[in-house]
Amino acid sequence: MDPGQLARVLGTRESPVTHPASLAGYSCKMWGPYPALVDGPPDSIVQGVAFEVNSQRAATRLARYETDAYVEHECIIRFENGDTLLGATFKWRDGADDPDLMEGSFNLREWQSKR
């Protein structure tokens, strides 16, 4: 969700264009300061942003950044205007009951203030 961090991960000077979006059927826990997407009830919604990965280089850099703690997972992305699209996200590898995860929520402003 942090455009500056995303630009660093992708190795670009310009921040990628992101779009407010959400995922249904997931919830978020925390792995230290990092959000961890996990399966949730079908009616739960996780808010975030989406952007188009337009090269294999970008996909590889994203996967490397996420580490093996996360796995790429196909999902339906819903945009603010109601449009949906088949996309991908990174989901926590071991599920919601993993003892490494804590209840909590990700606060982008707090994250940015500590960077």
CATH class term: Alpha Beta
What's the helix count?
3
- Largest sheet, strands/sense/barrel: 4 strands, antiparallel
Mean pLDDT score: 90
- Strand order across the biggest sheet? 4-1-5-6
In CATH, the architecture is Roll
Q: Please tell me how large the radius of gyration is.
A: 14 Å
Helix content: 10-25%
CATH topology name: Hypothetical upf0131 protein ytfp
Low-confidence stretches: none
Overall SS class: alpha+beta
What's the CATH H-level superfamily name?
A: Gamma-glutamyl cyclotransferase-like
Q: What does it look like?
A:
The chain has a 4-stranded antiparallel β-sheet with strand order 4-1-5-6, with no helix packed on it. It has a two-stranded antiparallel ribbon with strand order 2-3. Strand 5 (70-79) and strand 6 form a beta hairpin. It has a single domain, classed as Gamma-glutamyl cyclotransferase-like (Hypothetical upf0131 protein ytfp, Roll), CATH 3.10.490. The chain starts with a helix and ends with a helix. The model has no long low-confidence stretch (mean pLDDT 90). It has 3 helices and 6 strands; from the N terminus they run αββββαββα. With 115 residues, it is α+β, with helices and mostly antiparallel strands. The longest helix has 11 residues, at 56-66.
